[in-house]
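Record Imidazole glycerol phosphate synthase hisHF, 594 aa.
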Amino acid sequence: MEATAAPFSSITSSRQNLSSSSSYSIRASSPTSLFLSRKNIGNVNLKFKSPRSFSVRASSTPDSVVTLLDYGAGNVRSIRNALRHLGFSIKDVQTPGDILNADRLIFPGVGAFAPAMDVLNKTGMAEALCTYIENDRPFLGICLGLQLLFESSEENGPVKGLGLIPGRIGRFDPSAGIRVPHIGWNALQVGKDSEILDDVGNRHVYFVHSYRAIPSNENKEWISSTCNYGESFISSIRRGNVHAVQFHPEKSGEVGLSVLRRFLQPKLRVTQKPMEGKASKLAKRVIACLDVRSNDKGDLVVTKGDQYDVREQSNENEVRNLGKPVDLAGQYYKDGADEISFLNITGFRDFPLGDLPMIQVLRYTSENVFVPLTVGGGIRDFTDASGRYYSSLEVAAEYFRSGADKISIGSDAVYAAEEFMKSGVKTGKSSLEQISRVYGNQAVVVSIDPRRVYVNHPDDVPYKVIRVTNPGPNGEEYAWYQCTVSGGREGRPIGAFELAKAVEELGAGEILLNCIDCDGQGKGFDTDLVKLISDSVGIPVIASSGAGTPQHFSEVFEKTNASAALAAGIFHRKEVPIQSVKEHLLEEGIEVRI
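=>
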């Protein structure tokens, strides 16, 4: 795999330290060259209430500086924000000498193994890293930053790693009855002398990966914790001052922040015992979704559709306004949402990199929200009015740099699947294939928007037909689910079953499964549809559309193999608090993060 990361100097120089003390809108000299302005862009006004009460800014004394090795792929903004939140400032690695001179070094590896090693080797960072770690200097590797310490990986390989820890990185085995990637909040089995895990307190932490390291006699002296997912794998290592974790502390809420704090302040005495949890396995996720668009006054708002219609049924027919995106996301984080998903519901109409307010929403949200963020809408190849071509990879990269952990692809994935099913050939040119190849399939969600079509007999259409629980308007006992594009406005000649199978083959790591018929109805998820898709693919499926009560969440988890359930309107309107959903699931014996 070719590395697409930029040189270290260009990566760090292009980043901005964004203040949240004022209301801003964004202007661009080019779609990928962003800068702040106090003027409006077009007719879109982006207004923010300062979230500064959450964060602590550090003075740049030697004890408050952390050296960060950012090789240029994926969302590293989140670890930056977490470090600043804890009161630390950041020095970026520009040269191998910066590694050797670091007082403490964090390597938040994001993306795929081969491109990362390619960048480290070409820049001379690999040798400096080995020297630093072999000298027992304070080091914390995160996710890929753990895997690269091992001898090799089979991801697009074999590919040689740094070789500091015995063992090979291999892919999870789906034949063990698990979904790959491993996405979600799981439990740790913590060993003695783990140090940075002392405050985890048997609570869940967030994982997102397809490859893992297996414990062995050769590496057992390094292991500080394991996790079970079909098998036991290494979730953290420690030897002296050298630590690395497979999970993402910057995405594991307060628990994850405690891990970072322990690494950064090993001598800090904790006077209050951490809350003990009851984590034992992979939890079901409860996700808050924010449909974002500009209203008729030009303000960016969270809205909610009724079968995808977001306008009020009134004389004014205005866009339904349920709150400000940054404020709501911050509240849902405090309320216990396991993930937050932003869907730019007009992104299919315009050039996505021109939608700078949405990018800025991500940036502000990620300053104080330490759970995974997904963004979707308009992620595709694009040629602007001047004839300049932008690949979907460039669009996704801007979202990742702005704070997204996963991107969601809708219409473009439908077109790619149709071409793949017609030709049987993976061209590697679709947005789905390009992004998953560079960032890993765990970073790519495909959003499916199907509509139920009733038929009298399974042979009536050339698509997967199922017997439905509730008959159609004329007593039909069967239905297929027609996929749509452009926000549900256009039906396509492909079913949800066929699309799900195709996008999994093309590189999707997760499916967000909507249902236009159930959207905004509050009568429950379409469990027929969710069961069909979750039984048919080996990647996680998120159930969406129709939640109205806590019981609807337990129903979809009990009747289907959904890994997560998503809701929007009931949270926005405060009809059902997130905590009430989780308390109900616990009462029903369904494991969730608390």
